[in-house]
Every structure is written in structure tokens, then in C-alpha cells.
Design goal:
The complex is a heterodimer of chains A (649) and B (214).
Chain A: H1 3-20, H2 25-48, E1 53-61, E2 64-70, H3 72-95, H4 104-124, H5 128-146, H6 153-184, H7 201-213, H8 222-228, H9 231-255, H10 262-282, H11 287-314, H12 320-353, H13 364-367, H14 369-382, H15 389-406, H16 411-441, H17 448-451, H18 458-476, H19 478-492, H20 503-532, H21 556-565, H22 568-571, E3 574-578, E4 589-593, H23 597-619, H24 625-647
Antiparallel strand pairs in A: 1-2, 3-4
Chain B: H1 2-21, H2 25-46, H3 53-81, H4 93-113, H5 118-121, H6 125-142, H7 146-166, H8 173-201
Helix pairs in contact in B: 1-2, 1-4, 1-6, 2-3, 2-7, 3-8, 4-6, 6-7, 7-8
Classes of the chains: A mainly alpha (649), B mainly alpha (214).
Chain lengths: 649, 214
Amino acid sequence: MSPGPILLLAAAATLSAIVAGPRSARAWLALMLTGTVAGLAAALVVLGGSVDWEWRSDFALGGEDVHLRLDGVSALFLVLLCVVGGAATVYAQDYWSEKQYPQSAPRGRAWWGGLLLSMTWVLLCANGLHFLIGWELFTVCAFFLIRRDDRRPAVRAASWLYLAASHAGTVFLFAFFNALAVRRGSWDLDAMRDQAELAPLFWLALAGFGIKAGMFPLHFWLPAAHANAPSHVSAILSGVAIKMGIYGLVRFSGLLPVPAAAGWVVIGLGAVSALLGIAFALVQNDYKRLLAYCSVENIGIILIGLGGALLAASQNDAPWGRLALAGAFLHVWNHGVSKALLFLGAGSVLHATGTREMSRLGGLWQRMPWTTGLFAVGAIAVAALPPLNGFISEWLVYLGLFEAASTRTIAAWAAIPAIILLAVSGALALASFTKVIGIIFLGAPRTAAASRAHECGRMMRGPMLVLGGLCAALGLLPLLFWPAIARAVGSWRPGWADAPAPVALGQLSAAQVLLGVAGVAAAAWLWRKARGGSARRGLTWDCGYATLAARMQYTGGSLAGVAAGWFDWALQPELRQRRPRGQFPASAFRRERIPETVLEKILGPVSAAIRQLAAVARRLQHGRLQFYLLYVVIGLAALGLLVWLEGRP
Amino acid sequence: MSGTLNVLIGLAMGLNLVALGSSRLPALIQAMSLQGVLLGVMPLLLEEEGFNWRVAVVAAATVIGKGIVIPNLLRRATRAANIERESDPFLGFVPSLLLGAGGTIAAVALARALPLLPEHAGTLLVPGAIASILTGFILLIGRVKAISQVCGYLILENGIYLFGLLLIHSTPLLVESGILLDVTVGVFVIGIIVDRIQRAFDSLDTRRLTTLRE
């Protein structure tokens, strides 16, 4: 069946959801689910088949024919959008309910429909002008979703920062699409790999889409926005919206020729994003902010894969490029699904305890077993541990890089450092998620809020179960998903179509299943033992203190302390402390804060300087007519001088 | 013919200096109106092929407008506002006089350096025009009373008019009469505004208008 009618159904359902959303939550849920399922079906039809869907309108919209195209690459991203979008739609019903937010929930439902629809539009558009319109709509919808809880100043600040950063990115995209349209004489986005003079435009696309993707150092808006948004919004922002930046890069590096240095730069940016993203994640105390920084790391991993593919493409289509690109594509899915799961889990914790500070939580596993289990699944997936999905995609990227390293060409110089940085960031990711799980879910509750926590309802648990199941399926049965990935790789570069699955992937899949079974068995055994009552319960090590309190447990800061110390040059921690003095110290404190280095140390001073300059310029406008006239005279004289100097032989 | 023209332009340049040096508003208006009359006569002198009635009409209109109507409007405004003198200007009278004189010399020197047509090179038209524009600007910048600024504006316009005379053979004087019409309307408006400012603020000092910015 052709995807056209299914997509039409999806669009109609989502549009009616936007209209009906503010009035009826049930109708909205039904319509949104219809829309996402239909969109998913259309994408799967394209990914499963071998024909792209293309449609061109007879009428013009804004002077241009509507030109839609669903090929392997856009279908890949559309699948992720529909899966995460559908799951988060169900989740939102309970999480951001009418009861709790009578004002914010109804409008949020309309914006939610708008966000999903505009992102789909961006994925389908094959016309630069319409792409930009969709891109702006998507940005605006996301802005209003981030500030759902706009009574809190931090939320308002985060949403404005997001909007400003997004618009800075859009400026680059305007320049990009305009330059493209001017040089080609058409806004249509068709393959133009043979027009070598278009190659420098790649840098504009990299800047514009890079801001949206949140790659280091353009990630400065991301942690605040993703941490302050409602959790279902964070899930779609981190899981899907930043992937739209990746989609833009993939799409236009596939359609356009790229400069020779593109692969190197993308790998470099990816490696830096991966390493510093996870270094910042490691030291966060706000668990949603930690997850947001972890997204920066994963964007880095995807970029390493994409950069490897670009590098391979520039080196006579070296075969290892396919592996790297397949790894990147699979990681788009894997990170999207597992990060959405983690944010939904984080939302469940936030819903139950009302705090985002890890140091106020602890011991939640007894009160929230489902959330704990599902969060652990997400953490294992995102930390790229076998047997779940993150491992598979990172393994593919590694495989590509190792093959590149063994070619003894110049590409090895990019691959070897990338492998090392990827390995270091993988280890740090493991440390970060050990910290999250250990501090939030294990141990004893540190505050009353944590001890009063309750498990989330079915409407919140269901979507998490679906996402967790997908993590497992992607991890255990990668061969099942390989054709879809290979199809997307073929869409990106026609010469790379029909790449066979690496032989090792089958063996790996068997090992994953074995490991999975062993892991589940071990977990079940531990669970029974812990619940059985044979274990003695109490607070751990008392170290000679007379009154032992839960607050004295090991903290997240100390857990991450050693590793964080290696990154002091980037993190620039601000420490304020008063040490205890004397035999009977009256008071003491120690406060460590990790600044948003890029925002506070670079962008802050720069924008302050611009404001000062503007204030100086403002003084020129004092309202005295006489001086205004003097400006005119000076201007005239300068103009005359210029003309005179130009006229001189 | 060119000799008479040069004498008239020289007189107009002298009147510029009178306008710059006088602190009394009636004297300033008088200098400006005289300059307007001199300028109005000039097109007749420039006509070489006998009498042209269109030029004559424009000349008459200029003399009446610049020499009689506008000055009378300004005199009425002065009387209504009840001010006689320009007290404490931004730029003192002696400095503005020196600036004006320097400007006039510079204008003559500049005109020598400009690549002019041979038929214009002998006249004082270009230096006169530049000097008048400069004088207009000095008055506009240096004075604080709204009426002095109107005078500065008119002298500036006189300079533009002198430039326009250069093109008398190629451009019809209709353009110039259009400018003149604009100026007359402008002066009407300013006259009304001056009246309003006087009533609202009890002063014509434009320095007090700074709070109106934005």
C-alpha cells in the first residue's frame, strides 16, 4: 500500500487532535495515537520496501509547489518520532493531567500536536522554503511546550534561552537555504552531488543544525531546556527534537557535495561532544540535567559515526563508512528510545517526590519498583552495556572505526583518537549512570519527600514498558532491524545500498540473548533474595557516629569526584566552603557548583560586552536636535570626503 | 552679466555673516529676507536670451515668498512669543562668526578644486551655495531658539537654491518652486508648533525638548 493515504490519515488525525485537544483529553489521546500509528505505518512501508514515496502538489504554497518525499533517511527518523511521540502522548495524559494543571494541560495538548505535526512536515519536506517554515513552527511549538510551567522563573529563562539559541541556528539555516536557492535557481531539494561549488554551504548547515542537535559547544541551551520542560516534553526533545538537527546534517550531507574537511570536522566535534558532554553529565546533581548532558554525549557518538561515513565517502567509498553510518543511524533510534524511557522514568520520580535533586532522594527502589526497573533498563541501554541496544550501535561505530584504523590510510589518524575518546566517554557514561541509579534508587531515602514516594500509574508505566521492550528488542534482535538501517544508508548514498549485515552481528546477537537471559535470571534471583527477608536491613557504615542518619550516605558528588577531577579544566567548578575549626566547630559548609561553562564563561561575558557597547551607542540618542544636526553635517562631510578620495586618480 | 551676479552672490555671502553675528532675532530675520530677495532676482540675470515669462513668474514668487511672506510669518511668531534676543546659544556669536568666515573661505577654496563646467567656473555660485549651506547648519546647530533654527533652515535652503541655479538651463525652475512650496508649508507648520511650544512650555528653548525623545 502506498504511504500517501496513510500519511494523509496521520495528518488529518493530528490536525483534529490539535483542534480537539484543548477541549477533550480523551479525544486528543485517541486522535494522537491514530496519527502516530498511521505515521509509523507509513514509515515502515517505506523502510520495508524499496521505493521512495514522492508527491508534488498542483497548487503553490507561498509561491512554491508542495513537494514531499519519504525516503529511507526520513522514514528512519519518522519511525523514531512516531514511537516516542506516541509513547509520550499516553504518558502525558497522567503526568500533565487536567487535575494538576487546569490551565496548562489543555493548551499543552494543542502545542504537542503542533510539535509532532511540524516535525513530520520537516522530515517530509523536499522544498527549502517549506522546510524552513516547518522548522520555525517546530521551534515555536517546542518553546511553548518547554514553558508549560511558566510560573517558575527558571522555566521561563530556559525557554527564552532555547528560543534565542534556536533562532541563532535558524539564521544560519536561512543563509544556507537562500544561498542554495540562489545558486541553483530553485528551492527544490534534489540530489545535487555533482555541483561541487555548493560544497562550502555545508559549514552553514553544520552551524545551523549543530545548534539544534546540541553538539558541543553549541549545546549551551540544551541542559536548561531539557531539565525544565515537563518530562514528556523532555523525552521528545531529547529523544527526537535534537535528532532533527542530526536529520538536517544527514539529509544535506547526503544531497549536497561536502568539503574535503567535513568528515574530519564532524568526527572532531563528535568526539569533543561525547567526551565533554558526559563529563558535564557526571557532575550534575539534577538528574534531568544529567540526562540532558548525556544527550550531548550521544549526539557526539552519532556525529562520530556520521563523520566516519563522510570521511569514508571522500576516500573512494571505503566500505567501513557503511558500518559507521549504520551505527550512527541505529544509535539515532537507540538513543531516542532509551533517552525517552529515561526521561519518562525521571518524570515518574519527579512526579512522586517533587524534586530534581539527587541528593534529596534515595531508596526509591522499594517504593517504585517498576520505575526503578525500567529506569535501569534505560540506563543500561544508554550506557551502551550489553545486552541492550546501545551496545549494538556503539559496537557498529567501533567496528567502522577499527576497520578505518586498520586501513593504514590517513583516515586512521581520525579513527584512532575517536576510538580512544569514545571509549573514555563510554566509561564515564557508565560511571554517570551508576551514580544516578545508586543515589536515586538504592540506599535509604535521604528526605521525607523520598520516603513518601509512590509508584506511578498505569498510563505512565505502559509507555515506559513499550520503550523498555523496544530497547530489549533492538538489543537482542539487531538482525531484524538491519534491513531498515541498510535501506536508510542506501538512501543517504545510493552507492552504499544493500549493505549486507556484518557477519559478526549475528554472533553478537546470540551472545546478547545469552547475556540477557543470564542477566534476567540474576536480577530475579537478587530480587527474591532482597524481598525474602533473610537480608538484614540497616544503614551502611556508621564510622563511629553516635546518631546515624540517612543524610550521611555516600553522595553523588563524592561518587563522581575522582573522575570529575580530571575535567576541572572544562568544568571550572566553583567551590565555597567553611571548614570546621576547633574542637567544637560551630558551623561549617561546603558548596560546590558546576557552572554552565560555555554559557557563563564565554557567552555571558560576550553578551555583556555587546550590551555595554549598545549602552554607549544609546547615549548618542539624547534628544538634542542641535547635535542630531551636527551628526548630519559630520555624515555629509564624511561622505563628501569619501567621494573625493574615490574620485582621485 | 556675470559681474552683477557675482556682486549679488557676494552680498548674499555677506548676509550669511550678518545672520551668524547678530544676536537680535529681528536682525536675523531681516538678513534672511534680504538674502531671499537677492536670490529671487538672480534667475533673471542668468537668462541670456531675453525675457522669459516663466522665469519671471518664478522669480517673483521667490521674492514674494522668501522676501515677504516667510519673514512676516516669522516676525509675527517672534511678537507672539515675545522674544527679541537669542540668549546663551550653544555656540557663541563670535565663534560662529569665525566658523562662518572660515567656512566661506574654505568654500571658495573648495570650489576651485571642484571639476566645474567652464561657464560656472567664473561665478561665485558654487562657493556661495556651499557657504550658505554651511551657515545654515551652523545656525541650526549653534542656536537654541526655535525661530533662529527656522532661519538657519531657510538659509540652508537658500544654499540649495543657489546650487539649483547651476542647472537652470537643464532643469525647469518648477523643481525649485516645488522646494519653495515645501519650505513655505514647513515654515507654516513650524510657526504653529512654535506657538504651541510657547503656550505649553512657556519657552522656545529647544533644549527643553529633550524629554520628547523616543
